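lol ok so funny story. i was supposed to be doing the assay writeup but got distracted and ended up predicting the structure for this chain instead. priorities right. anyway since i did it might as well share w the group, maybe its usefull for someone
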Amino acid sequence: MDQITLRAIPPGEHRFFVKAQDISGATSRTISFPDPADSQLPLHWVVKPVAGEILLVNDFAQDQSLYQVQSFYNQILDQLLGASGYSVWEIGSERTPLINSQNSLPYSSLDIEANLAYFKSNLVCSSRPASSDRRRPEHYPFLRSRRENFYQ
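and the output, tada:
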């Protein structure tokens, strides 16, 4: 199976379609991502332009309704870097209640590493202290391998 990496995708809403062909020439039906049959997901995925050298990773899904914790970090980063001086990645939850579930982990580690590579530093805010969080950095080598990370 060949792997295709999509690069230089312009910012905006996207949906892609895939059709496979085997060695005998038989083709599959066309499928798309996101899947329009899944009513829990939007019908597109969004590519955002990179802003600044710092990525704020909000791994606190329960905050992604009122944004109290993220707002705290946004205010600090706004004062230090300006409102367009950094990017934000909100990681959702697959657990009940589903919050921002279309952005929940796991992504492909290649995708995560590619996203993180756009930034010099990553600031991660999470819902649990590192000592009790099953998703703490040692469980994610793509975060652990980064030279400049900061964790709550």
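Confidence is low (pLDDT under 50) at residues 130-152. The CA atoms of residues 77 and 83 lie 7 Å apart.
back to the writeup now i swear
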